[in-house]
Write a structure and sequence with these properties.
Helices cover 69% and strands 1% of the residues. With 528 residues, the chain is mainly alpha-helical. The protein has a single domain, classed as Amino acid/polyamine transporter I. Strand 1 and strand 2 form a beta hairpin. Helix 3 runs antiparallel to helix 12, helix 6 packs antiparallel against helix 14 and helix 16 crosses helix 20. It is globular.
Length: 528
């Protein structure tokens, strides 16, 4: 069994470290190119939606602090069918993260070692053969550091956390105090930075903003290894999001203010300046702050690799939980002497290496990850409401007020973010989910006669996943066909969300089955 060893502060630092990865290095540029200076609204929208979603998982994880919570909650409330598909989507998103962070490191360093990247046909930087070789080496380093020693892992996490937060604060302070152009924040009818709500919302999904907050789920996946879970879980899941939102908004303000107005003469979408492969390095160099340039180049390696290190840890817990739920071989739940799921970690390493081939660029990987992660997010609001009905008398140390209303709003936010990622991304996710479903159906361990399989939940799950793909095809984002126009999409997705949310709650497992499964999970959790 896994052991409880992460203290509340360990978990807060770990979650912040997991959230602050490559997003702060790239998202201020990519999101500003989409939404202009109105991107500040994008950060507030993305942060608020994430906080609301995080609250639902805080209640769930406080109720049942178990390893690989995303997998366990879905199966508990709706059975093995839902549990597998949601955990498959969650794993797809998390296993993509270490390669994303490695990609970010190499892309930043390519400012000084150009042979690491090449320019793709759509003018985006992607890894060269030389870059792919270094990607494998860095992935190996993250894997070995993760399995070598728990105490070494904790010390490394604290040092990385302290360094990256310090660099972010210094970057904000130096850019704002060295040169700041307030006119860059002006909204006008003739400017590309005017309040274009379609661009503002698109920046949330495709500019790296939704991606920037994904690390909050470390507290969900590692809940089974926390001491004092009543304090650790809300602090890690919600507290980390709020702290990181403050840092991200500060960085975006500093980035916009530091740009020369002449660089915006051709519009935000065409923003280009020397060193924009590493935007903050380029700006610091143009301002003559060369000590900050050196510090940023060091942090360009430390910050993403720190987040990648945490994702190697939490993604292995998803595989571990899938193995314990009999979705995968028991082989993957075997632990090393250090109580680490060794084979799960190596399996994720192998998959991560393969992901560099179809998704060799940072922004390509981010779009796919966001589409997958919000599918797993959507289970949080549904499971929270379902468990209130299935286990009404169980004491909860953390309770979300106005539960049904706020959970529906959180579910609606998940669906909006999925929709904003666009058709070009969602059809790829649909194929990945179909592959996962085929693996589940061919698994002979699950029989139609078993009530805990929960095939009844397919009445909401299939229309939900199919509906998201169809809406993205008809919409205006990422290769959509512009049949559903901006404005109407909010209403259509709201109606769609309400129907699916209602069906999902109605197709929950019967209370007597959930009570039995919950008691068994509590025994397992207490033994961890």
């Amino acid at each position: 069994m896994l052991s409880r060893r992460f203290s509340p502060l360990h978990m807060l630092f770990l979650s912040i470290n997991g959230i602050i990865g490559s997003a702060w290095l790239f998202a201020p540029l990519y999101s500003a190119k989409i939404a202009g200076s109105a991107v500040l609204l994008s950060w507030l929208i993305g942060g608020a939606a994430t906080v609301l979603i995080a609250f639902t998982f805080a209640e769930l994880s406080s109720l049942l602090p178990t390893a690989g919570g995303t997998t366990r909650f879905a199966e508990l409330t709706h059975g093995a069918t839902t549990g597998f598909i949601i955990s498959w989507a969650s794993w797809l998103s998390c296993v993509t993260m270490p390669p994303i962070e490695v990609q970010a490191v190499l892309q930043y360093i390519s400012t000084y070692i150009p042979s690491l990247v090449i320019t793709s046909d759509n003018h985006m930087p992607v890894l060269s053969g030389f870059g792919l070789m270094w990607a494998v080496i860095l992935m190996l380093g993250l894997t070995f550091l993760n399995i070598a020693s728990f105490k070494g892992f904790i010390r490394a996490n604290f040092l990385i956390f302290s360094f990256k937060v310090l660099v972010i604060i210094l970057t904000i302070a130096m850019l704002i105090t060295t040169k700041f152009h307030p006119q860059n924040f002006t909204f006008s009818a003739s400017s590309a930075s005017s309040l274009n709500w379609q661009a503002i919302l698109s920046a949330v999904a495709t500019g790296g903003i939704a991606f920037a907050f994904t690390g909050f789920k470390h507290g969900v996946e590692l809940a089974g290894e926390m001491t004092k879970p009543k304090l650790s879980i809300p602090l890690a899941i919600v507290g980390s999001v709020i702290i990181c939102l403050i840092l991200y908004v500060g960085l975006q303000i500093a980035f916009i203010g530091a740009l020369e107005p002449s660089e915006l003469t051709h519009g935000w979408a065409n923003l280009h300046f020397s060193g924009d492969v590493g935007p903050f390095v380029g700006i610091a160099a143009s301002l003559g702050i060369f000590w900050l340039v050196k510090l940023l180049l060091v942090d360009a390696a430390v910050s993403p690799l720190g987040a990648g290190l945490i994702y190697v840890t939490s993604t292995a817990r998803i595989i571990y939980a899938m193995s314990r739920n009999h979705y995968l071989s028991p082989f993957f739940s075997e632990l090393s002497e250090q109580k680490m799921p060794l084979f799960a970690i190596w399996f994720n390493f192998a998959v991560g290496i393969l992901l560099f081939l179809p998704l060799p660029g940072w922004q390509n990987m981010v779009s796919f990850l966001v589409s997958a992660v919000v599918i797993s997010y959507a289970m949080g609001p549904i499971a929270t409401v379902a468990l209130r009905k299935q286990l009404p008398n169980i004491k909860r140390s953390f309770r979300l007020p106005f539960n049904t209303l706020l959970c529906f709003v959180a579910f609606y936010c998940c669906n909006l973010i999925s929709y904003w990622t666009g058709w070009d991304t969602l059809w790829k996710l649909a194929i990945a989910l179909i592959v996962g479903s085929f693996l589940f159906i061919t698994n002979s361990r699950f029989r139609l006669s078993n009530p805990t399989v929960g095939f009844k939940s397919l009445w909401w799950l299939i229309p939900y996943l199919a509906g998201l793909v169809i809406l993205s095809y008809l919409g205006e984002y990422g290769g959509g066909h512009h049949i559903i126009t901006f404005g109407w999409d909010f209403l259509i997705i709201a109606i769609f969300s309400l129907i699916i949310f209602s069906i999902a709650i109605q197709t929950r497992l019967p209370s007597h089955i959930v009570e039995k499964e919950f008691a068994q999970l509590q025994l397992e959790t207490n033994a961890e």
